[in-house]
Amino acid sequence: MTANQSANRPTVAIAGANGFVGKALLARLLPDYYVIGLTRSERRSEAVAVDGRPSLEWRRADLFSLLEIEKGLQGADYAFYLVHSMVPSARLTQGKFQDMDIILADNFARAAKKAGVKQIIYLGGLIPEEVDGSSSHLYSRLEVEETLRSHGVPVTVLRAGIVVGANGLSFHLISRLIRNLPVMICPSWMSSKTHPIALQDVVALLAACIGRKKAYGQSIDVGGPDTLTYNEMILKTARIMGRKRHLYPIPLFMATMSSLWIALVADVSLKLVKPIVGSLTHSLVARRRWLQEEIGVSGLTFEESVRIALEEKQTKEGKTKAHPFVSNVRSVQRLVLPKGRSAAWTSKDYAQWLPRNLKPFIKVEEMDERLHFLLFGMKKPLLELTYSAERSTDDRVLYYITGGLLAHDDNTSRRGRLEFREVLNGQYVMVAIHEFIPKLPWFLYSMTQALAHLWVMHRYGRYLRLKANSSALKKEARDMG
Questions:
Q1: Domains 3-311 and 329-480 share a fold
Q2: 470 - beta bridge partners?
Q3: What pLDDT, on a 0 to 100 scale, did the predictor assign at position 137?
């Protein structure tokens, strides 16, 4: 991108530009903006001309890599965040999808701050009046919003329910159920109210947020004119498709059974279906739709949006596509951070806690910014970690995996790494391993080293919780005394 291009048109980066909403948004923004499409897949990196002007540039950026996202957002004035982490990103993934979401959002927010981005625009999900924590999917949405805001860049959140479009996951599930099941037993979650919105309307609203100062720092509900239950959406869609379907409601929630059944019938990963079904313990209805009123987007009806979606060429993007993985590992563990402590403190404390609690089997030696993890009686380390002073701060400490008996030689070239990172304004510290490639045969690694790491993390997490509780009790005693 040249300076003239930047001066003539604002530059907008889209994380998730290859996705269902991202592709439609990208097409909407061209050629009025210079667009940077961020994707983790290998794609052309040169700019693409629209109407004779360079308008689109693809940049490869793994959102789990802060370094790559920093490069990806260079030169961006505004940045869209259209990302979720429910699809596994490694051959072995240890950790909850909520914690993966926080890592991704934190990387994006940090990189946006460094790049001087003026505004982050995030497409989230509708939230009920009260979130009681019973739905991890709903609670995760709020945590992502908080994380994106935690580094000072103004954030605008559009909260949407089901986005109706040819390649959307929710519409894909509904249409596949209709095609494959003439009779459906409908658990109680299918009677929850929701607020569908057409893809075209979501894209128009996202585009309208760019540079809109009134929307800075706001979470804005959006929705179409219809408020419907899942049962009603299925019946309306079936009628448009010309199929008669019989639904029989039952007074049972059956979230786990429903998720398994839908995943099987719709041929979609259970990891994608389960959080969606679990979120439907509440009705999700848009409130305070002031942005739609302000820009005059009342929205297509559900039936209109379904007809458009069915007319569009159906692709297989509603189905989760498998990414080719090397035998790599990602482990993300959220630990309570004692008050007044930092990620830098945690990294040092962990290196001291480990040999103290695994004596005499494990010892840790520090040599010239390198940590050696040694098994009792052995001279060569099991793992060697090298501290990255250039990439570390007090709230994020990074070590690269640079050797050891248990590490494959490819770790150096693929940037295998261990990080300690503060999140959610210092409430927690994430201890995360990225792109680690074990030397052990995969079946042996998954049954030994992988389980050992998880056990150690749980033990260390318990230690930090006790330390945090002890500190809180001491403070309370001082305040009372």
A1: no
A2: none
A3: 76
Q: What is the tens place of the pLDDT at every residue in 81-117?
A: 999 877 778 889 999 989 999 999 999 999 999 999 9
Burial of 176 (0-12, 13-18, 19+ CB in 10 A): middle
445-457: burial string, b at 16+ Cβ within 10 Å, e else: bbeebbeebeebb
Q: In whole angstroms, what is the distance from residue 135 CA to residue 276 CA?
A: 9
| Dihedral, 411, 412, 413, 416 alpha carbons, nearest 10 | 50
Number of separate helices (H) and strands (E) present in the chain? 16, 22
- CATH assignment of 329-480? 3.30.530
Report phi then psi at 440, rounded to 5.
-60, 150
**Closest by Cα among 179, 84, 80, 185 to 136:** 84
Residue 91, both tokens: 């051959």
Instruction: Read off the tokens for 350.
Output: 């962990």
Report which residue type is found at 292: Q
Residue-wise pLDDT tens digits, 277-329:
877 777 889 988 999 999 999 999 999 999 999 998 554 444 445 555 578 99
Q: Which amino acid is at 474?
A: K
Q: Which amino acid is at 457?
A: M
Quote the mean pLDDT of the chain.
89
Q: Which residue has the tokens 């993007």?
A: 317
* Cβ pair 20, 165 in contact under 8 A: yes
pTM of the model: 0.91
What 8-state DSSP symbol labels residue 91? S
Q: Which residues pair with 383 in a beta bridge?
A: 373
Dist CA 209 CA 292 (whole Å): 11
Domain boundaries along the sequence of the chain: 3-311, 329-480
Q: Are strands 34-39 and 53-60 parallel, antiparallel or unpaired?
A: parallel
Q: Does domain 3-311 have CATH number 3.40.50.720?
A: yes
Quick one: how far is CA 180 from the chain centroid?
31
pLDDT digits (tens, 9 = 90+) for 439-456: 999 999 999 999 999 999
**Cα dihedral sign for 476, 479, 480, 481?**
positive
- Give the whole-angstrom CA distance, residue 124 versus residue 206: 11
| Strand 383-387 relative to strand 396-403, pairing | antiparallel
Pair 375, 382: CB distance under 8 Å: yes
Two tokens, residue 358? 């695994």
* Cβ-proximal residues to 89 (8 Å cutoff; 6+ apart), any chain: 64, 100, 323, 330
- Answer for the pair 158, 206: CB distance below 8 angstroms, yes or no: yes
Phi, psi of 376 (to 5 degrees): -50, 125
Nearest to 268 by CA among 316, 199, 197, 198: 316
Cα separation of 438 and 37, whole Å?
32
The first and second tokens of residue 170, run together, are 């929710």
End-to-end Cα distance, the chain: 63
